[in-house]
Amino acid sequence: MKLIIAVVQDQDSHKLMNALVRENFRATKLASTGGFLRVGNTTFLIGVEDERVEEALEVIRKNCESREQLISPLPPLGGHAESYVPYPVEVQVGGATVFVLPVEAFHHF
Amino acid sequence: MKLIIAVVQDQDSHKLMNALVRENFRATKLASTGGFLRVGNTTFLIGVEDERVEEALEVIRKNCESREQLISPLPPLGGHAESYVPYPVEVQVGGATVFVLPVEAFHHF
Amino acid sequence: MKLIIAVVQDQDSHKLMNALVRENFRATKLASTGGFLRVGNTTFLIGVEDERVEEALEVIRKNCESREQLISPLPPLGGHAESYVPYPVEVQVGGATVFVLPVEAFHHF
Ligand code: NI
Ligand code: NI
Ligand code: NI
């Protein structure tokens, strides 16, 4: 048994939980803030049998991997028009910081 | 020293914290949601001397063990009366998912 | 790689996060309540290379160490005047409970 602690961006959190449940992994979510990733993030605790660790990491990678996304900035409501970019820009989204921890004992009561 | 991470149902969380304090264990609670247990849950971090791990697990088991409870469903306020069950039903409550982690160093500043 | 889990008082949490970022450590914060420390607390997860563990512990100690602080109690708004202490009193603030955990694998996606 291993305990995977994964810090992911909020925007990927729902998708990841659904994917974990679909693949029969059991996870709990902790509200977390800042730090590893700049924007709002969620910390997952995932208890995994040794032989399924790679599979769990793959689910996290697929759903949370850092990628570029085109976003169209909203026009400014007033002022600061000089810094307004009227075309889509690429921003970095997603990303996951993942720790695999050894577990000495696991119990389910 | 071990770190026990225990995910328990919200309804058992207050009782468990009181029992841990009474037995002189030191714990902190993290707000957590969904996953290991279907309903709202709380994640406990409990720092424990090696020789008291079994005792701590017993406190968790006693206060959080999965059990059946009789509940009397409330009559429906309107509509869906066809699915109303007018007698108490047994539901599964409680339960704890517990990881015992090795600790390389412990400090109290 | 180690995972440092540090439970600190809320009042030191902002200062600690700033100090960690300044020293190029990466941390995430979890909202936590009660237990190890009597007042509101915050749990930090800090991923650290083996050779920087002592340095990270020193940042935590410097910013969170338990210390005495003089506070001037506010006069009571009404009633209980008999228990009002009209001079500054020393109270214990700060403190940190810190676990250093072994990490079997670390990934950044
Ligand atoms: Ni944030
Ligand atoms: Ni929930
Ligand atoms: Ni508190």
Task: Give a written overview of the molecule.
Three copies of one chain form a homotrimer. The first copy, chain A, has 109 residues and is an alpha+beta fold. Chain A has a single domain (2-73, 87-102), classed as Alpha-Beta Plaits (2-Layer Sandwich), CATH 3.30.70. In chain A, 23% of the residues lie in helices and 41% in strands. Chain A has helices at residues 10-22, 53-64, and strands at residues 2-9, 26-33, 41-48, 67-71, 89-93, 96-102, 105-108. Chain A has a four-stranded antiparallel beta sheet. Chain A has a two-stranded antiparallel ribbon with strand order 4-5. In chain A, a hairpin with a 7-residue loop joins strand 2 (26-33) and strand 3. In chain A, helix 1 (10-22) runs antiparallel to helix 2 (53-64). Chains in contact: A-B, A-C, B-C. Chain B binds chain C through residues 1, 3, 17, 26-31, 44-45, 47, 101-109, and chain C through 2, 5, 7, 30-37, 41, 43, 53, 57, 60-61, 64-66, 94-102. Strand 2 of chain A pairs antiparallel with strand 2 (26-33) of chain C. The structure holds nickel (II) ion (3 copies).
